Hints:
Elements: H1 2-38, H2 40-60, E1 67-75, E2 78-86, H3 94-159
Helix pairs in contact: 1-3, 2-3
Amino acid sequence: xxxxxxxxxxxxxxxxxxxxxxxxxxxxxxxxxxxxxxxxxxxxxxxxxxxxxxxxxxxxxxxxxxxxxxxxxxxxxxxxxxxxxxxxxxxxxxxxxxxxxxxxxxxxxxxxxxxxxxxxxxxxxxxxxxxxxxxxxxxxxxxxxxxxxxxxxxxxxxxx
Length: 160
């Protein structure tokens, strides 16, 4: 009975550890993304993106706002009202050009931000790969050193 419960517990542990591998990989992705977003360069890039979007919003505003004028004149018992609207006509379609320009600014700033995020992610991944490779090399060297000591002890015992 005791053997069954121990093997059962080992099976349960292995089952849950295999289920958590996928969760750990997605957690790791979120962790890496969060770390990159917290980096000062990425914060600056995000603020640059927001600044460029505000600039695009400003460019997209109408060039010629209508002007509203009103006048009230009272002559004795008569009230004279005058209401006027004046609008400059955009003959050369400058507003459409401004709208297109603001769209291009938004697209360019978004692409620049995405490029900076991807570049930072690539640098982080390359660093992690190099670290992992160095860790593996150190483990192999340590293993080979212990094997070398074992072989040298065997040779000493064999020759003596």
